[in-house]
Specification:
With about 230 residues, the protein is of the alpha/beta class. It has 2 domains: about 160 residues, Alpha/beta knot; about 60 residues, tRNA(m1g37)methyltransferase, domain 2 (Trp Operon Repressor, Chain A, Orthogonal Bundle), CATH 1.10.1270. It has 8 helices and 10 strands. α4 crosses α6. The chain is elongated. It binds S-adenosylmethionine. The site of S-adenosylmethionine has 20 residues, from β5 and β7. It is found in: Cytoplasm. One of its GO terms (biological process) is tRNA N1-guanine methylation. Keywords: Cytoplasm, Methyltransferase, S-adenosyl-L-methionine, Transferase, tRNA processing.
Protein backbone atom coordinates (compact mmCIF):
# COMPACT_ATOMS: atom_id res chain seq x y z
CA UNK A 1 0.00 0.00 0.00
CA UNK A 2 1.20 3.52 -0.78
CA UNK A 3 0.49 6.57 1.36
CA UNK A 4 1.38 10.05 0.15
CA UNK A 5 1.39 12.71 2.85
CA UNK A 6 0.91 16.36 1.99
CA UNK A 7 2.16 18.56 4.78
CA UNK A 8 3.99 21.77 5.63
CA UNK A 9 6.01 19.87 8.25
CA UNK A 10 7.29 16.53 6.88
CA UNK A 11 10.03 16.35 9.56
CA UNK A 12 7.36 15.79 12.20
CA UNK A 13 6.89 12.23 10.90
CA UNK A 14 10.52 11.10 11.01
CA UNK A 15 10.64 9.68 14.50
CA UNK A 16 7.24 7.98 14.34
CA UNK A 17 8.18 6.04 11.20
CA UNK A 18 11.63 5.06 12.46
CA UNK A 19 10.45 2.69 15.19
CA UNK A 20 8.54 -0.47 15.97
CA UNK A 21 5.73 -1.73 13.75
CA UNK A 22 5.78 1.12 11.23
CA UNK A 23 9.52 0.78 10.64
CA UNK A 24 9.07 -2.96 10.12
CA UNK A 25 6.18 -2.42 7.69
CA UNK A 26 8.30 0.01 5.64
CA UNK A 27 11.40 -2.22 5.78
CA UNK A 28 9.34 -5.20 4.55
CA UNK A 29 7.91 -3.09 1.69
CA UNK A 30 4.39 -3.64 2.95
CA UNK A 31 3.97 0.09 3.32
CA UNK A 32 5.43 2.81 1.12
CA UNK A 33 5.11 6.31 2.58
CA UNK A 34 6.19 9.43 0.72
CA UNK A 35 6.12 13.01 1.91
CA UNK A 36 5.44 16.10 -0.13
CA UNK A 37 5.98 19.54 1.31
CA UNK A 38 3.12 21.78 0.22
CA UNK A 39 5.55 24.73 0.22
CA UNK A 40 7.45 23.15 -2.68
CA UNK A 41 4.37 23.70 -4.82
CA UNK A 42 3.90 27.37 -3.89
CA UNK A 43 4.90 30.11 -6.27
CA UNK A 44 6.72 33.42 -5.88
CA UNK A 45 9.78 34.52 -3.99
CA UNK A 46 8.19 33.87 -0.61
CA UNK A 47 6.54 30.56 -1.51
CA UNK A 48 3.41 31.60 0.34
CA UNK A 49 1.10 28.73 1.26
CA UNK A 50 -1.44 30.79 3.24
CA UNK A 51 -3.23 34.10 2.96
CA UNK A 52 -5.71 36.28 4.84
CA UNK A 53 -9.37 35.16 4.83
CA UNK A 54 -11.93 36.82 2.58
CA UNK A 55 -14.46 38.51 4.82
CA UNK A 56 -11.87 39.30 7.48
CA UNK A 57 -11.47 37.67 10.87
CA UNK A 58 -8.53 35.99 12.52
CA UNK A 59 -6.27 33.24 11.27
CA UNK A 60 -4.75 32.44 7.92
CA UNK A 61 -6.24 30.22 5.22
CA UNK A 62 -4.19 27.70 3.25
CA UNK A 63 -4.15 28.70 -0.40
CA UNK A 64 -5.73 26.29 -2.90
CA UNK A 65 -3.13 26.49 -5.72
CA UNK A 66 -0.18 24.73 -3.98
CA UNK A 67 -2.44 21.95 -2.70
CA UNK A 68 -4.04 21.32 -6.11
CA UNK A 69 -0.62 21.37 -7.77
CA UNK A 70 0.82 18.97 -5.21
CA UNK A 71 -2.00 16.44 -5.65
CA UNK A 72 -1.85 16.71 -9.44
CA UNK A 73 1.91 16.19 -9.31
CA UNK A 74 1.61 13.08 -7.12
CA UNK A 75 -1.08 11.56 -9.34
CA UNK A 76 0.96 12.15 -12.50
CA UNK A 77 4.39 11.22 -11.10
CA UNK A 78 3.18 7.94 -9.63
CA UNK A 79 0.57 7.20 -12.30
CA UNK A 80 -2.14 6.79 -9.68
CA UNK A 81 -5.38 5.54 -11.18
CA UNK A 82 -7.77 5.78 -8.24
CA UNK A 83 -6.16 7.45 -5.23
CA UNK A 84 -8.34 8.33 -2.25
CA UNK A 85 -7.67 11.87 -1.05
CA UNK A 86 -8.31 12.17 2.68
CA UNK A 87 -8.40 15.54 4.42
CA UNK A 88 -7.73 15.37 8.17
CA UNK A 89 -10.17 17.76 9.83
CA UNK A 90 -12.16 17.97 13.07
CA UNK A 91 -15.23 18.32 10.84
CA UNK A 92 -14.85 14.86 9.28
CA UNK A 93 -16.39 11.55 10.35
CA UNK A 94 -14.72 10.22 13.45
CA UNK A 95 -11.97 7.71 12.76
CA UNK A 96 -12.42 4.18 14.06
CA UNK A 97 -11.25 0.62 13.43
CA UNK A 98 -13.88 0.03 10.74
CA UNK A 99 -12.76 3.06 8.73
CA UNK A 100 -9.15 1.90 9.13
CA UNK A 101 -10.06 -1.53 7.72
CA UNK A 102 -11.76 0.10 4.72
CA UNK A 103 -8.82 2.40 4.04
CA UNK A 104 -6.30 -0.44 4.40
CA UNK A 105 -7.90 -2.05 1.33
CA UNK A 106 -7.08 0.96 -0.86
CA UNK A 107 -4.01 0.88 -3.01
CA UNK A 108 -3.12 4.57 -2.78
CA UNK A 109 -4.03 7.11 -0.13
CA UNK A 110 -3.21 10.80 -0.20
CA UNK A 111 -3.40 12.35 3.26
CA UNK A 112 -3.78 16.12 3.37
CA UNK A 113 -2.67 17.81 6.60
CA UNK A 114 -4.18 21.23 7.15
CA UNK A 115 -2.72 23.99 9.28
CA UNK A 116 -3.58 27.50 10.47
CA UNK A 117 -7.30 28.37 10.44
CA UNK A 118 -8.39 26.07 7.59
CA UNK A 119 -7.77 25.10 3.98
CA UNK A 120 -9.57 27.07 1.27
CA UNK A 121 -13.04 25.55 0.93
CA UNK A 122 -12.47 24.82 -2.78
CA UNK A 123 -9.90 22.19 -1.82
CA UNK A 124 -12.62 20.28 -0.02
CA UNK A 125 -15.08 20.85 -2.85
CA UNK A 126 -12.94 19.64 -5.75
CA UNK A 127 -10.04 17.60 -4.42
CA UNK A 128 -11.01 15.74 -1.27
CA UNK A 129 -12.80 12.36 -1.32
CA UNK A 130 -13.12 11.82 2.42
CA UNK A 131 -12.84 14.00 5.52
CA UNK A 132 -11.69 12.27 8.69
CA UNK A 133 -11.39 13.52 12.27
CA UNK A 134 -9.49 11.75 15.04
CA UNK A 135 -11.78 13.15 17.74
CA UNK A 136 -13.82 16.05 18.97
CA UNK A 137 -10.99 18.45 19.72
CA UNK A 138 -8.90 20.81 17.62
CA UNK A 139 -5.24 20.09 16.89
CA UNK A 140 -2.77 22.68 15.62
CA UNK A 141 -2.35 20.76 12.39
CA UNK A 142 -3.30 17.55 10.63
CA UNK A 143 0.12 15.92 11.10
CA UNK A 144 -0.62 14.16 14.40
CA UNK A 145 -3.95 13.00 12.99
CA UNK A 146 -2.23 11.63 9.86
CA UNK A 147 0.23 9.73 12.07
CA UNK A 148 -2.66 8.16 13.95
CA UNK A 149 -4.29 7.06 10.68
CA UNK A 150 -1.02 5.65 9.31
CA UNK A 151 -0.34 3.68 12.48
CA UNK A 152 -3.83 2.17 12.72
CA UNK A 153 -4.09 1.42 8.99
CA UNK A 154 -0.64 -0.20 8.93
CA UNK A 155 -1.73 -2.74 11.57
CA UNK A 156 -4.54 -3.82 9.22
CA UNK A 157 -2.21 -4.66 6.33
CA UNK A 158 -1.61 -8.43 6.21
CA UNK A 159 1.91 -9.30 7.35
CA UNK A 160 2.58 -6.10 9.32
CA UNK A 161 1.66 -7.49 12.73
CA UNK A 162 3.54 -10.77 13.08
CA UNK A 163 0.87 -12.59 15.06
CA UNK A 164 -2.46 -12.10 13.23
CA UNK A 165 -4.27 -13.37 16.34
CA UNK A 166 -3.21 -10.31 18.30
CA UNK A 167 -5.16 -8.14 15.83
CA UNK A 168 -8.33 -10.21 15.87
CA UNK A 169 -8.39 -10.07 19.67
CA UNK A 170 -7.69 -6.35 19.79
CA UNK A 171 -10.35 -4.01 21.06
CA UNK A 172 -12.88 -3.01 18.36
CA UNK A 173 -11.87 -5.77 15.90
CA UNK A 174 -15.00 -7.54 16.99
CA UNK A 175 -17.42 -5.16 18.66
CA UNK A 176 -15.69 -5.93 21.98
CA UNK A 177 -12.88 -4.55 24.11
CA UNK A 178 -9.85 -6.77 24.63
CA UNK A 179 -9.69 -9.19 27.60
CA UNK A 180 -7.20 -8.73 30.51
CA UNK A 181 -3.61 -9.84 29.92
CA UNK A 182 -1.03 -11.18 32.39
CA UNK A 183 2.62 -12.18 32.20
CA UNK A 184 5.21 -13.40 34.72
CA UNK A 185 5.54 -13.31 37.73
CA UNK A 186 2.53 -15.38 38.75
CA UNK A 187 2.31 -13.56 42.06
CA UNK A 188 3.12 -9.85 41.97
CA UNK A 189 2.80 -8.03 45.28
CA UNK A 190 0.06 -10.41 46.37
CA UNK A 191 -1.89 -10.08 43.11
CA UNK A 192 -2.30 -13.52 41.53
CA UNK A 193 -2.70 -14.46 37.90
CA UNK A 194 -6.18 -16.06 37.46
CA UNK A 195 -5.93 -19.85 37.93
CA UNK A 196 -7.53 -20.62 34.57
CA UNK A 197 -4.63 -19.00 32.67
CA UNK A 198 -2.11 -21.43 34.18
CA UNK A 199 -4.40 -24.47 33.86
CA UNK A 200 -3.14 -25.42 30.39
CA UNK A 201 -6.78 -26.00 29.35
CA UNK A 202 -7.05 -23.92 26.17
CA UNK A 203 -10.78 -24.37 25.74
CA UNK A 204 -11.36 -23.01 29.26
CA UNK A 205 -8.86 -20.20 28.65
CA UNK A 206 -10.68 -19.15 25.46
CA UNK A 207 -14.04 -19.20 27.28
CA UNK A 208 -12.62 -17.13 30.16
CA UNK A 209 -11.17 -14.56 27.76
CA UNK A 210 -14.44 -14.28 25.84
CA UNK A 211 -16.39 -13.81 29.07
CA UNK A 212 -13.94 -11.19 30.34
CA UNK A 213 -14.07 -9.30 27.02
CA UNK A 214 -17.89 -9.23 27.16
CA UNK A 215 -17.90 -8.21 30.82
CA UNK A 216 -15.37 -5.44 30.26
CA UNK A 217 -17.29 -4.14 27.23
CA UNK A 218 -20.58 -4.14 29.17
CA UNK A 219 -18.95 -2.13 31.95
CA UNK A 220 -16.95 0.33 29.88
CA UNK A 221 -18.49 0.55 26.43
CA UNK A 222 -22.03 -0.85 26.44
CA UNK A 223 -22.70 1.10 23.23
CA UNK A 224 -20.50 -1.40 21.34
CA UNK A 225 -22.89 -4.25 22.20
CA UNK A 226 -25.99 -2.50 20.87
CA UNK A 227 -27.23 -3.60 17.47
CA UNK A 228 -28.44 -1.09 14.88
CA UNK A 229 -32.13 -1.61 15.66
CA UNK A 230 -31.73 -0.96 19.43
C1 LIG B 1 -6.39 24.67 13.98
S1 LIG B 1 -7.02 23.38 12.97
C2 LIG B 1 -8.35 24.16 12.15
C3 LIG B 1 -9.69 23.90 12.75
C4 LIG B 1 -10.84 24.53 11.98
N1 LIG B 1 -10.79 25.97 12.07
C5 LIG B 1 -12.15 24.03 12.57
O1 LIG B 1 -12.58 24.58 13.57
O2 LIG B 1 -12.73 23.07 12.02
C6 LIG B 1 -5.81 23.19 11.74
C7 LIG B 1 -5.76 21.86 11.05
O3 LIG B 1 -5.53 20.84 12.00
C8 LIG B 1 -6.10 19.63 11.57
N2 LIG B 1 -6.95 19.10 12.65
C9 LIG B 1 -7.30 19.76 13.77
N3 LIG B 1 -8.05 19.01 14.57
C10 LIG B 1 -8.19 17.81 13.97
C11 LIG B 1 -8.87 16.61 14.31
N4 LIG B 1 -9.58 16.50 15.43
N5 LIG B 1 -8.80 15.56 13.45
C12 LIG B 1 -8.10 15.67 12.29
N6 LIG B 1 -7.43 16.80 11.92
C13 LIG B 1 -7.47 17.86 12.74
C14 LIG B 1 -6.86 19.92 10.28
O4 LIG B 1 -6.06 19.52 9.18
C15 LIG B 1 -7.01 21.43 10.33
O5 LIG B 1 -7.07 22.00 9.05
Amino acid sequence: MRIFVLTLFPEMFTSVLAHSMLKRAIDKNLLDIRFYNIRDFAEGKHKMTDDVPYGGGGGMVMKPEPIFRAVEHIVAAHQLTSPVVVYLTPQGRTFNQQIARELALKQDLILLCGHYEEVDERVRMALVDQEISIGDYVLTGGELAAMVLIDVIARMIPGVVGNEQSITHDSFYQPLLDYPHYTRPQNFRGMQVPEVLISGNHKKIDEWRQQEAIQRTKQRRPDLLMTNDE
